[in-house]
Amino acid sequence: MPKTSYRAVEETKNKMLAYLAECSDSRQPAQVSIDAMAADLGLTRHRVIHARDELLLEGCVQTIPQYSEMGARMPNGYRITPFGRARLRKARLETTGLAGVEGSPQCRK
Q1: Model confidence at 24: pLDDT above 60
Q2: CB-based contacts of 91: which residues, under 8 Å, 6+ apart?
Q3: CA-based Rg of the chain, rounded to a whole angstrom?
Q4: Is the model's pLDDT at 108 over the cut of 70?
Q5: 51: how many CB neighbours lie within 10 A of its CB?
Q6: Residue 96: beta bridge partners?
Q7: Alpha-carbon separation of residue 106 from 31, 94, 103, 109 (angstroms)
Q8: DSSP percent split of the chain into helix, strand, coil, nearest 5
Q9: Given this structure, which CATH class describes domain 6-90?
Q10: How far apart are CA 26 and CA 5, in angstroms?
């Protein structure tokens, strides 16, 4: 199996954070299954699980178990933590090329 570069793994995690941010409401966690994330992001199920586990370990995402009214298990809810929001903001700045530019939030003192 070929190794995945560090940059590719980081891009996958940032893509997943952005996806969860789009799916979630400020009050409600994003309720998405692994298969749905894999299909929407164009990734394999294994890469989504790996990225999710790394985001959980880094403290960027919180998993919230979800149950229906009848008690049946539903897909997990994912809430982005403040640390995850900061990481997402930083990734967006780097992507748009504003990191280190005068007037960007990182440069203000």
Answers
A1: yes
A2: 14, 17, 18
A3: 16
A4: no
A5: 23
A6: none
A7: 32, 11, 8, 8
A8: 50, 15, 35
A9: mainly alpha
A10: 33
Q: Which pLDDT score, from 0 to 100, does residue 26 have?
A: 73
Closest by CA position to 24, among listed 56, 51, 64 = 64
The sheet carrying 73-80 orders its strands as 30-31, 73-80, 61-67
Altogether, the residues listed in the chain come to a count of 109
pLDDT, tens only, 37-90: 999 999 999 999 999 999 999 999 999 888 878 877 787 889 999 999 999 999
User: Domain residue spans in the chain?
Assistant: 6-90
Structure tokens at 77: 């809810």
Extended beta strands in 3-56, E state: 30-31
